Amino acid sequence: MNRLILLLSLYCLNVCNLQGATMPDRDYTKTHPIPKAFDSKRTQYTCAAWTSPSPPDAESHLWYRAATLIHAKDGRRNKQELQNMIILYEAAASKGHYQAINNLYLLYTHVQGASGTLFDPLQKRARKWLHYGLDKNWAMANYWLFDALYEGNAGYSHNPKLGLAYLQKAVDLGVPLAQYELARIYENKMKDVKTSESLFSCAAKQGFSAAMDELSISKKIDGDLKESLLLMHNAIRYGGEGGGGAALRLGLVYGTSKSYMKEFEATPADPIRQAAYTELYKALKGTGTKSGNPFYPSPRLDEVLPLPPAKTHWKGIYSAMSKEDAAFYQNPPDTAALATDILKRGIVKKEDVYWPPRKE
Question: What pTM, to 2 d.p., does this model score?
Answer without folding.
Answer: 0.90
